[in-house]
Amino acid sequence: MLDRVKLREIRLQKKMTLRQVAERSGLSPSLISKIERGEVDPTVTTFWKLCNALEVPATLLLVDPMTRQQHIVRAQERRSFVFKEKRSEYIPIHASFDERVEIIEVRMEPGESIDRELITHEGEEIGYVLQGELSVVFPDREERLYPGDSIRFISSTPHRYANPGTDVSISLWVMIKRKMP
C-alpha cells in the first residue's frame, strides 16, 4: 500500500507546494491533495509521475523505513502496492541502503496491463520473468517474455507492461536510479 503520510512528508521536506509537484508531474494539485488525504488511489502512471516529480524511488513510498536498516525482510513484513483497478501488485523485495537500486516483484492477472499510458523515469530497468507471460510495450515494438527470459532497457524509453497470457505473470525488476547518457 502507498504510504500517503510519507508522500506528504517528502513533499513538505522538499519544501514543495502541491502546485509545484503538479507542474513537475503533469498532475493536478487537487488530485495530488486527494491522494495525500487517501480519497483517491493513484494509477500506476500517476504513482510513477509522483515519484519522478519528488525525485524519490518507488520503494520509499512502499517500504517501511525500518526495513532499510535490515539485511533480512520477512515475507509478512513486506508491504505491497495493489492497483485495484488493474488487478496488479507491486511488491518491494528490499530497499537499497542508498535508494539508488530498487528490487520489485510485479504480479499481474491474465489480460491485465500496467496502465494504457507509456511511462518514463530516470535510470534503467532489468526484468526477469518468473512465471507466466509478460509483454513489455515500447512505442515502436512489443517484446514478449516467458519464464527465464530477461530484458534490460533505459527507463527514459516510454514503456509499459502487460500480461497477454492465461496465467498470473510474476516478474522481478531491478530499477537502477541514475542518469543515463
Automatic annotation (TrEMBL):
InterPro entries: Cro/C1-type_HTH, Cupin_2, Lambda_DNA-bd_dom_sf, RmlC-like_jellyroll, RmlC_Cupin_sf, TransReg_Diox_bact_type. The keyword Hydrolase does not apply. Keywords: DNA-binding. This is Helix-turn-helix domain-containing protein. SMART domains: HTH_XRE. Residues 7-61 form the HTH cro/C1-type domain. It comes from the Bacteria. The lineage of its organism: Bacteria, Bacillati, Bacillota, Bacilli, Bacillales. It comes from Hydrogenibacillus schlegelii (Bacillus schlegelii). GO terms for cellular component: cytosol. GO terms for molecular function: DNA binding; DNA-binding transcription factor activity.
